Amino acid sequence: MADTAPEHADDLAPVVREAEEEAASPAAHDAPVDRTDAGRGFALGTRRVIALAAAVIALAGVWLARDVLGPIAVAAVVVTIAHPVRFPLERRGWPRWLATSTVVALAWAILAALALLLIVASAQFVSMLPDYLDELQQTVAGAVAWVESTGVTTDATASLSSMLDPAQLIGFAGGLANALLGLATAFFFVLAYVIFMSADAARFARARPVFGTAAGDVIGRRYFAGVRRYYVVNATFGLIVAVIDGLILWGLGIPVPLVWAILAFVTNFIPNIGFVIGLIPPAVLALVVGGWPLALVVVLAYCVVNVTLQVLVQPKFVSDAVSLSLTLSFVSVVFWTLVIGPIGAILSIPLTLLVRALFLEPDVRATTLRRLSGDSLDGPVTADAARG
Q: Which run of H or of E encompasses 101?
């Protein structure tokens, strides 16, 4: 045993000398030391808090500028819908300026049709309301008496009476003129925005070379195509629902059925809660002119038609078009209404899709958030997109 120890020491000597030389070299002292999170800046939780704070500040700015950003958002959505008409025209040899002019004309036609619907509905509603003022007063008095008989406090009955106060409704009807004047002012801004956006939209026809392959697919193929499919689906179902509801109301003898048909069409663009908003006015009017039996018939008819089409059938087509979860669709209505006003309810889905396209789809690390939003993850997300 004593004789073998020196032999092993001789075998280890080169290894020891090599280790001593490596430790003494300057490179060993300059080698980077892995300190895990030391070189990565803020911790993950801190970065998330900073990002959330930045989002709150940005949304506060959007809220302050909502009167400007609302018309811009409307113009952007209308141009997105009208833009595809450019492609067949350019394939037939039309010059770009003429194709752009056609897009502008189509966008203006869409806006004019919507404005005409709102003007007709508002005019009929304003002219109809005074004719039923006495009946409405009696209905309010009867509803208040019934609520008081159930033992509800006077504060609650006062709230009910004020909500259905004919004087307030008359004031609301008179205030529609001022509201329409404000909408007309915003409408002219929208028309101007459409011209410039239609000219700039020609660049997005070349989204791949302009933005890169992955980003171009996200912007061109997914977002704009998804917004167009969403509005085509909603307009189709909204038209069907409006026709059926209008015919039912006309058959039941409800006054101005055209107004409520237009309301059903417009509120169909508000996810989830649009059906309820479109139901309340004709149901109240049915209560005024025909009592509880007629009001219940209207509610039942709306439930059969609208629940079947808007709750059971339409969400399948909408889900295929935009891949948003039902929860996020509902929350987006409330959220964007709070941020940019009532127009946010109609634009909630395109705005939510825009946020997802800009901040989630190009990032491979956002897979969990995309799945929570309802995304099928069919988008062209790559590592290059995440780095770019």
A: helix 96-128
